[in-house]
Amino acid sequence: MRALRLSACIFAGAFLGVVIRWTVLWIFPDTNLWPVFFINIVGSFLLGWFTGQINHSHSWSNVSDQTRLFLTTGLLGGLTTYSTFSLDIVGLAATQIIWALGFAGLQLFLGIGAAMCGLTLGAKAGRR
Fold first, then answer.
1. Closest to 89 (Cα-Cα) out of 101, 73, 71, 72
2. Is 30 exposed, middle or buried (0-12, 13-18, 19+ CB in 10 A)?
3. pLDDT tens per residue across span 7-27
4. Which secondary-structure segment (H or E) carries 96?
5. What would the pLDDT profile of 42-90 be if each residue is shown by its tens digit?
6. Do 118 and 44 touch, CB atoms closer than 8 A?
7. SS3 for 29?
8. Where on this chain does Na(+) bind (predicted)?
9. What is the distance between the alpha carbons of residues 53 and 49, in angstroms, rounded to a whole number?
10. How many whole angstroms separate alpha carbon 119 and alpha carbon 6?
11. What pTM was computed for the model?
């Protein structure tokens, strides 16, 4: 029964994350590269921040597994999208290989940096 509750929390969070991502892509329909880029960077930062908060905050120490999984694996997992990023890079590489490699490298570098910043800021805020 516990596994079913946890799965339902992940599903609900992922559904919400996908709806948010779909809405952003619907608002910017002709420019798929940049919205996905910013969604992934913001999602990386937020995942780091929530993880830092959950791991270092007394106020978050009693956060249930359901809440943690809803926010991290569900919501932010559904919001961010490696598959769309990969498909965008493959499409771009068909005509502009250097730009595609640079764009992929930039997104990975900034995504990792955003996650590190989020972790650090979340942990610092959690220790207060």
1. 101
2. exposed
3. 999 999 999 999 999 999 999
4. none
5. 999 999 999 998 888 777 777 888 999 999 999 999 999 888 899 999 9
6. yes
7. coil
8. 77, 80
9. 6
10. 24
11. 0.88
Q: How many CB atoms lie within 10 A of CB 105?
A: 10
Cα–chain center distance at 63: 20
Binding-site residue numbers are 77, 80
| pLDDT at residue 128 tops 80 | no
> Does the pLDDT at position 115 exceed 80?
yes
d(CA 59, CA 42): 23
Which phi and psi (to 5°) does residue 58 adopt? -70, -35
Task: Quote the CA–CA distance of 93 and 98 in Å, as a whole number.
Answer: 8
pLDDT of residue 84: 87
Name the residue among 105, 12, 30 with its Cα closest to residue 66: 12
Annotated binding site for Na(+): 77, 80
Q: Which two tokens stand for residue 113?
A: 């940096």
111 phi and psi angles, rounded to 5 deg: -65, -45
pLDDT reading at 120 higher than 90: yes
Is 90 exceeded by the pLDDT of residue 6?
Answer: yes
